[in-house]
Amino acid sequence: MSVTLFERHRDVLDRAVTAIRDRGYWSAFSEIPSGKIYGETAAADGLASFQALLGKPFPLADQPATIDWGSSETNPYGTTLGITYPLSDISALISASRLAANGWRKTTVEERTGVCLEILHRLNARSFELAHAVMQTTGQGFVMAFQAGAPHAQDRGLEAVAYAYEEMMRVPQHAAWEKPQGKADPLKLDKTFRLVPRGIGLVIGCSTFPTWNSYGGLFASLATGNAVIVKPHPASVLPLAITVQVARDVLREAGYDPNTVLLAADTADQPITKELAMRPEIGIIDYTGSSAFGDWLEANARHAVVHTEKAGVNWIVIDSTDDLKGMARNIAFSLSLYSGQMCTTPQNIFIPADGITADGTHVAFDQVVGAVKTATDKLLGDPERAVEVLGAIKSEDTVARLESAQASGAVARPSAALGHPKFPDARVHTPLILKTDATDEAAYLTERFGPISLMIATNGTADSLTRAAGSARDHGAITASVYSTDPVVLEAAEAAAMDGGVALSCNLTGGVFVNQSAAYSDFHVSGANPAGNASLTDGAFVTGRFRVVQVRRPAAA
Amino acid sequence: MSVTLFERHRDVLDRAVTAIRDRGYWSAFSEIPSGKIYGETAAADGLASFQALLGKPFPLADQPATIDWGSSETNPYGTTLGITYPLSDISALISASRLAANGWRKTTVEERTGVCLEILHRLNARSFELAHAVMQTTGQGFVMAFQAGAPHAQDRGLEAVAYAYEEMMRVPQHAAWEKPQGKADPLKLDKTFRLVPRGIGLVIGCSTFPTWNSYGGLFASLATGNAVIVKPHPASVLPLAITVQVARDVLREAGYDPNTVLLAADTADQPITKELAMRPEIGIIDYTGSSAFGDWLEANARHAVVHTEKAGVNWIVIDSTDDLKGMARNIAFSLSLYSGQMCTTPQNIFIPADGITADGTHVAFDQVVGAVKTATDKLLGDPERAVEVLGAIKSEDTVARLESAQASGAVARPSAALGHPKFPDARVHTPLILKTDATDEAAYLTERFGPISLMIATNGTADSLTRAAGSARDHGAITASVYSTDPVVLEAAEAAAMDGGVALSCNLTGGVFVNQSAAYSDFHVSGANPAGNASLTDGAFVTGRFRVVQVRRPAAA
Q: How far is CA B124 from CA A227, B30, B83, B114, B240, in A?
């Protein structure tokens, strides 16, 4: 059955394997929310499917170990979802997972890969429904929710499957070992190599990118033979509930135990993540979220391979530019997109206090700040367009942080609440830009999640780069960006990025933004600084998820 | 310079890369200590080189940070080596390593690989010298010291280089990323991917296999761009001192900082391993040794990727055989080889209390035990041959353990001290075989390092397999072995081995022994049970040693 699935999707797998070797542009799943691609009724059908879920228990009644139904899911657009999810007896859930794992571990690489590819294929067909689910839980604008929440997330999942497949295929199933013994008969052994899964894979989702950040770990663990328990963030459950539902459907139809993938929902009042993570049956943890909890997992879940994506202080160093307007526009968009709630959003913008050279003339520090402010004002000038870019703010904590930051510092651009034309109770706030001096490290060396950025006056670009590299090394960073017309400075920026272990983008003034990370091409998070220990996706992300156990027998003479 | 080295050794690298994919028999370095292969004067030259080292400071005067010279090296053959080694100021040693690392991280994959291959080539040329060094520190017999200490260790090093090379080559250096934008111009980025080392690699050697167990980690870290500090066991320094000397010579001659590889010797009185391991500059640790210290490293060295090979309770399950004598001979050799001081030596031999079927007839439990005893007596009947098989016992603790075990239990075969014809003060003891009941778990569920094995009476083969699998899962095991003529039992034994995450050998009655692990073919340690978290060598052994940091720039239009 599932070898058929493998054959059905073999072309897309082969293409993905090529893509991760080339790392040029490729995508298996179209990011264009168009009826021409997804079917003329796809948009309406997806919306209807989403709406049909509202106000009811989510259709996962077939999951075992359910002791109650509940939810503390929130919608930053201010409407009520009213969906409840199964709440589980943890021990019973783990027992069901282990039982399923006993079957799943015996499948072949092709069987498992085929199932993963079919799950991704079906998720893609539900992209509009997923887009609404992501939008109405995370607060992303619709287009972003569609792209990042559906096809781009699916691409990250496929990328993980391709890495897992390639790494597993490096281990032959059999070997004939024949050692010469001079004139005597050779020693001969038949060897069999079995891939043994590591244990149950626990995937801990985040509230802002529930699918994009979870699919890598989910599919890498599943493809390598591990059963998976998906623990969504209690405030953003729906996108992962749909994902688990699709996975279980595919597993069941292909003849496997659907409990190979299970949802472990919880509520904000009764969190279960620590208890789950500390269960010895958990062999792998994939986590996206706060540094505090990620550090706790790394320190305490010693029985498991722990992959984390935590937080950092992303930076831009501005040295010089020959396109001040393009630079300002590009930065303004990066700061505004989804209200700075991306782990890739820049926070600290280092600028020489003496100003820079832009378009051939000297431009003062305050003028550079002013250019970004003006570009932001312009980008957000039309409220209808503004809410599409900004989305809504997921957490009340973020709004509180924004308000207290606004009260505390030198404000270059104040944040303002914005009304949403369609959702009157939506939490929409424009970006806050602060000014500070490089010596005030307390102001900028911790993450200020949300639409808060700092324009930091330094003693010059060398000072900027030293501080930027040090901040990445010591406090973590997922993205870095530099603007300079001077090749020597660009080289120094590269050295600073290597030193800080952070991905660098240079002179982005057009339609590419530092926030964006493309599957198959960009390594998301380096694992080389405190912002996380794992990268989407490299070999290290998959190799620890299985082990090789061998059997040797004397070969027939 | 070192691209030349890469080209010079490219054939052997290509062959090694093929070997790790096929996992059939192959070796780059001949295990035959013959003049025809190593040169007619190699044996005499090697002995002379070894003897020239005795009674002097080891020639590593060029190492920085030396504050004293000393040694607590011991020779189980009872003669005095009298070699002293540089003792270092740890902070100064790490500073020198970091400085060297700054240069080493900038080398290309080909440069680093070429240097590694040249080091291995030169180590091979010094195989006779290394054999004497290994023999006179570990207590191994000469042939074993030559094979395991020189060519087989070099093969393990080359295997690690091949894995590292292949994994690094999976990441392209550059990519042209071009994303279509409908009718508009495509978005274009030039991307560069840089491999960034993880930090200083610390290699912690053991006293019994200082080279074989260290070369994997040493060469994997070095090939992936990390500087390496080698911390030998204080009782067995010489083989790794020679190794470091060779590495430094090659680095210097190829134009690199020789401090890219440093020796950090210590003495039993003033151990430095904990202090070294806890330094934040250490990014990778490769450790072989006791479970207690390995567990400590895994729990405490959280800043580093920690690879461990610790201890376990290896098992044999005897169900039935059609070659009782062959089986007994094979087991007797496995128990006797290097006096059971191999991490692969069997300890627990599970046999049905009711006896087994052998050669078509019923054979009682005591007769099975008797057959192994008789085969052991016969193997060791000639003292000159016996000492070659047994070697000498490295640690006085092992002798004490042996004596106390002899006094405590039901002895099936007593251990006896044996005189060595060439080394009158050598510590030679024959194997002790105990009998016990399966319910006496305290007797056999901890490792009894050295020539101590237990014949364990069970309720039948099903009981044997359950206990064996459980012991591996809970207490670790590196090897497992089964004897049965019944395909159903063999299948159950495979399931038990998978369950316990331990490599299984079936029906070994000839010239292959469960203790042996061949580079390029056998995965040594599975990483799937408490006996260790790393495997020699799989993808997971190398992928965590480097990270990818990328740079993106808009492509020229």
A: 46, 9, 22, 15, 14
Using the predicted structure, report yes or no on whether residue B556 has a pLDDT greater than 90.
no
Classify burial at B246, counting beta carbons within 10 Å of its beta carbon; exposed 0-12, middle 13-18, buried 19 or more. Answer: buried
The model's pTM: 0.97
CB of A174 closer than 8 Å to CB of A546: no
pLDDT reading at B483 higher than 60: yes
CB contact under 8 A, B550 and A522: yes
Low-confidence ranges of chain A (pLDDT < 70): 1-3, 557
Mean pLDDT of chain A: 97
Q: In A, which residues are within 8 Å of B23 by CB distance?
A: 171-172, 175, 177, 191, 193
CB contact (8 A) between residue B507 and residue A550? no
What is the band of B307 on the pLDDT scale with cuts at 50, 70, 90?
A: very high
- A233/A253 Cα distance (integer angstroms): 28
Contact (Cβ atoms closer than 8 angstroms) between residue B476 and residue B501: no
Place of tokens 């009764």: A270
Can you list the domains of chain A with their CATH numbers?
2-170+195-310 (3.40.605.10), 315-506 (3.40.309.10)
Note the pLDDT of residue B1.
Answer: 53
Please give the ipTM for the structure prediction. Answer: 0.96
For residue B407, the model assigns a pLDDT of: 87
Distance CA B282, CA B90 (A): 12
| Shortest Cα distance, chain A CAs vs residue B24, angstroms | 4
Chain centroid offset of residue B275 CA: 23
Write the CB contacts of B553 (distance below 8 Å, at least 6 apart in sequence).
A505, A506, A507, B189, B190
Q: What is the mean pLDDT of chain B?
A: 97
* CA–CA min distance B543, chain A (Å): 5
How many CB contacts within 8 angstroms connect chain A with chain B? 185
